[in-house]
């Protein structure tokens, strides 16, 4: 089955042969697509339970069960549900080259090119480097701008800023300079351009983001709706929540293996700093009251008592539940890490946004508890959960955690593929604003009926 977009093709290229497509052809194709779509859905509904594949991303149960992603565990393909995205990825992404745009190099490695990608790929913000590398290798990469559906603008600014490679002012000015050299950015008002902002600050890292890239697609782990800033840089309709970057030692090498439930010393744990956050402070108090149930040490982040990566994971795996309270912002890496040591994550971060919510039923793999109710009541509740239910959630989590891993796209169950599916949903035939109009013959004009190629888009562009 082809999905409607592929059948119609974006305005500037089509995927099928060289026969010109008349409008009648296109409408015919669309009808076929729509019919096949409903037939396939029908079949899916009647036969889904007989399928031999395992359910990877767990659905909402009942009538919707067939609408979930299925992963055939034998190394086969991930069957994405129709209600998710369709059945085939067909995307063309142009990745800007470091040297083609003046300033891009500084966004990748600092003002004097001193900061290496190797130092930026590590840690919870490594997704900014990994996604760039994965897109460079992707079979969906195109080297022709004129046929691209989407454009990827690589930048490692979170890392570059932390390592002193650029300050806030330079980041802002460099982004503006870079964007001003991108005609395709102007053409769409930025709407088909993709940016990654891997930290809690989201797109705020680029001070004038709201002026210049608030129409673009932003990949970020953060839905920072309650952040200290008065405006959120995350918009659920155009942006995509991505998983945080879990240490490779855990995702690919699994150097710290999970413990059997009965061998775990604690009911729950939280291993992190207090950072003066209400929820975290409450947990630390609670741990003093119930030291045998809750492990919640004041962690040292420097000096000889600092936990190493492996020690950290060894602690984390020693509880049935891994608590994930809000920190400086609402997303927390701990949530993702929990799946690799196989504790059940308990979100204590009310505003959190989670990735791929259309295909993952988070109720089956985690718990979200109101942060205003952190106290003995929480521990009592967690204690009341039978081990069988915990085991079940852990088993479900084991199946979906591949979606948190930035593995090559040849791996059907990976963050990479999930992001590509999400991106495919963001492809638009049309990229303009309320000041844009079109005519029967495909001409795009402005309010004064002047052809698109002859006017300056009305939005503020560099
Ligand atoms: C960001 O840079 C642009 C271009 O130099 C400038 O117009 C804008 O005022 C800057 N934004 C901030 C917040 O300084
Ligand atoms: C984007 O920015 C422009 C200019 O600042 C503003 O007019 C518009 O409302 C913004 N759009 C969104 C979705 O924030
Ligand atoms: C489309 O129609 C308009 C109005 O008749 C005309 O001005 C324009 O040149 C046409 N565009 C093309 C591409 O033929």
From TrEMBL:
Subcellular location: Golgi apparatus membrane
PANTHER family reported in the protein's UniProt record: EXOSTOSIN HEPARAN SULFATE GLYCOSYLTRANSFERASE -RELATED (PTHR11062), EXOSTOSIN-LIKE 2 (PTHR11062:SF281)
Keywords on record: Glycosyltransferase, Golgi apparatus, Signal-anchor, Transferase, Transmembrane
Annotated Pfam families: Exostosin_GT47 (PF03016)
Domain (Exostosin GT47) ranges: 91-374
Entry membrane topology: Single-pass type II membrane protein
GO cellular component: Golgi membrane
Entry protein name: Exostosin GT47 domain-containing protein
Family: Belongs to the glycosyltransferase 47 family.
InterPro entries per UniProt: Exostosin (IPR004263), Exostosin_GT47 (IPR040911)
GO MF term set: glycosyltransferase activity
Keyword check for 4Fe-4S: no
Superkingdom of origin: Eukaryota
